[in-house]
Amino acid sequence: MRTPTAARLARLRAEMAAADLHAVVVSSEAAIRHLAGFVLGRGERATAGWSGTLLITAEEALICADSRYVEQAEAQATGYTVVAAGQRRMHELLPELLVAREALHVGLEAAAISHADASRIAETAPGLELRHADALLSELRIVKEPDEVAAIERACALGDAAFDHLLGWIEPGMTEAQVAWELEAWLRTNGAEALAFEPLVLAGPRAAMPHGRPSDATVEAGNVLLLDFGAQVDGYRSDMTRTLFVGEVSDEVRGIHQLVREAQARALEVAAVGVSGTDVDAAAREVIGQAGYGEAFGHGLGHGIGLDTHEDPFLVRYAEPLRAGMVFSVEPGVYLPGVTGIRIEDLVVLTDQGPRLLTSSPREPIVL
Fold first, then answer.
1. CATH number, position 191
2. Beta bridge partners of 25
3. Which residue range is the domain that position 61 belongs to?
4. What are phi and psi of 214, to 5 degrees?
5. Chain segment 148-158, per-residue pLDDT in tens
């Protein structure tokens, strides 16, 4: 996918000027990929250390790389000047670059740089004033461009196809771990460059753990099977949850499933340009609360998604008006420890006409 680096840098520089920042240091994998097109594999950041770090001023765009990544940076980071760092560490290199450019007000990603590294940078160049730039960088990504939405939609289509495959493959007696592995293998075999996150496959009472890990527990008749998974395509991710019935289930389980569907439908009715995320969250929460299950819906209704699986806007605390082009999940749930858990999750892109679903798998009850 083409990365529109110049336009994104122009937007960032406008935000920097408004915030009186002379430079911004970009350290997270997603923000680096968004602004420069430089891609480190998942988990590689830990071994790469700070390699790939961006330093952006009003006039320059630099990408720092050690010898392992210089060639890759030169090929991927179009419009950037590659700084070959040799053996110098971040707290040694960055102050040198900043001082040379007389950059005193410097924005850092507090969520991506350790306190120790930030302290070393401050100690090495005492004249610097370090500020948080997380919100500024998040704002650049919170509204998706058309090609970003298209990539998320391709990832969603792959997830829908994987779900359709599982419906014809899962049988009672299989373990959660077996189903999770089949899901992962199918996605990778059929075009995913990676999984968006480790799949959640939870059977029976274990479905009451909203983010439980797959285990050797078996899929048993008379209960539910919760599947939460996503694919990554061209760097962008999908996320979908469906809760299946394994044979006949109790009336209570069916009733909760219907309640969760109604809560999601209500949230989709309310979601619109200009409506706050907190109001959308409250709409779903009200439906579940009125049915007496308010305490059983503990997590937020939805989260943004893109180059990260979880990014702004987080609806439960996003009190600002939603904007066209935002992509987020809508995923109400009811969880009864020791009994069952039901969640239904879809991704939408918000348009001027309302939310458009990016996931298309059935939401009505499905019996295996």
1. 3.90.230.10
2. 55
3. 5-141
4. -60, 145
5. 999 999 999 99
